[in-house]
Amino acid sequence: MSDQPRVVAGTGIAVCSVSAVAVPAATFVPTGRHIDGHDKCWSQVQAWVQLENAARIASDPLNEALTIALTTAPTCRGGQLTCYRGRSFCEPSIPTSSDIGPPPSGSKVCGRYNYDGQIVLYLSCSSEGVDREMREDRQSIWIQSYTLQLDHLRIADFRPLIDAKQIPGDFDDLLNHVFWWTETASPDCGAQFVFSQFVAGRVAIAFDGMLVPGVRGDRSTRYDNVVLFRPHDRWQDWLTKGCSPQRLRQ
User: Fold this and answer.
1) Which of 25, 81, 117, 144 is deepest in the core (most CB within 10 A)?
2) What is the pLDDT of residues 211-247, one digit of tens each?
3) Contact indicator for 84, 127 with CB cutoff of 8 Å
4) Count of beta carbons in the 10 Å neighbourhood of residue 230
5) Tell me: the pLDDT tens digits for 55-80?
6) Which of 128, 54, 105, 68 is nearest to 231 (CA)?
7) How many other C-beta atoms can be found within 10 angstroms of the C-beta atom of residue 137?
């Protein structure tokens, strides 16, 4: 296999196979995240991801290494961050802001970064990101604007280093490999979200949320998502004042 960087065009790669393949280097096109399969993190994290349940994942020595790495994870600082939440409604419903919050407590909603029944608030940093995330929904889509005050929320920034001026050492190699796997997992080709859900649970211990790249981007358009943990007591305070829901598409 060539040592030249490999461009991965799909939404999943080695995680779709029973046994993962050795990849010297790869870039996941939808997020732009690049990993180097020559460093020691690759084989270690690759083996960790293959464990079949959360209990075995938690007992692996890399769990402790992840905990340490998270203490130095970059955070979103200063100012505010405007995000959008999308929900589908049947015509002719016109939702209010209170209708476009997190799922209600007790909901059996499972996602990339939350267990079944664990409530998080998924937001996108752009309306196009919402549209891409909900592209398979055929109902009317409405979006609500949220304004996050970054001085009051501890949000970890796990976006990949894409800017050539950035120094690779600025982002922990282990975290980069871990999130490469959480992003490439795709139920469409048999992969489950056990590992990504476990990782999000570890992040939630120390942070209010995390900023991650959206996995439905492409070469022309990439976007970011925010996952907010424990939103139920606070989410209405995050609504953008004076902004009511707007129809995104019908």
Assistant:
1) 144
2) 999 999 999 999 999 999 999 989 999 999 999 999 9
3) yes
4) 15
5) 999 999 999 999 999 999 999 988 99
6) 105
7) 13
Q: Retrieve residue 10's tokens.
A: 């799909």
The encoded tokens of residue 157 equal 């920034």
Rounded CA-CA distance 38/222 in Å is: 27
Output DSSP code: residue 172: -
pLDDT profile of the chain (250 residues), mean per 10: 33 38 79 87 92 94 96 92 95 92 86 91 97 88 97 95 52 90 81 91 97 96 97 95 91
Cβ atoms of 189 and 197 within 8 Å: the answer is: no
Question: 159: closest CA among 76, 229, 78, 221?
Answer: 76
CA distance 11 to 47: 20
What CA–CA distance (Å, rounded) separates 248 from 250? 7
